[in-house]
Design goal:
Elements (H helix, E strand, L loop, with lengths): L1 H26 L1 E3 L1 H7 L4 E4 L3 H6 E3 L3 E2 L5 H4 L9 E4 L7 H10 L5 E4 L10 E3 L1
Parallel strand pairs: 1-6, 2-4, 2-5, 5-6
Antiparallel strand pairs: 3-7
Protein name: Rhodanese-like domain-containing protein
Pfam families: Rhodanese (PF00581)
Organism: Candidatus Streptococcus faecavium
């Protein structure tokens, strides 16, 4: 009987992770460095890392809207232009930011696939 409960819990956890993964992949396009770089001049580049990380080093032309404050920053993002998002390579806040933007009506969302840690383009160091 106990093993049935354990299996059910495992199935629920796996289902939750799978749903989370696929819902995020449907809401935003994950693109590589080259594609991201080619879109910079026609899009809004948003760095969702905290301000200290942004000040130390960020992609040229990016604005800092930390994930922790994204709900308060929605009015600073235009809905008529594509949004390019990036964070660290293993960001746990990215799914929440993508969902928040999608719920707010943003439809043209792109995410730097491997994150800022693997960015090879131009950066500004503070």
């Amino acid at each position: 009987m106990d093993w049935i409960i354990i299996i059910l819990v495992i199935l629920v956890v796996v289902a939750w992770f799978a749903w989370n993964y696929y819902s995020i992949r449907r809401a935003a396009h994950f693109i590589d460095n080259a594609d991201f770089a080619s879109r910079i001049h026609t899009s809004q580049v948003i760095d969702i890392r905290e301000a200290t990380s942004f000040k130390a080093k960020h992609i040229m032309g990016a604005r800092n809207l930390p994930a922790s404050q994204i709900d308060l920053s929605l009015s600073a993002i235009r809905k008529d232009k594509p949004v390019l998002l990036y964070a660290e390579s293993r960001s746990t806040t990215l799914p929440r930011v993508i969902r928040t933007l999608k719920r707010a009506g943003f439809t043209d969302l792109y995410v730097l696939n491997d994150g800022f840690d693997y960015w090879t383009g131009k950066v500004k160091e503070g």
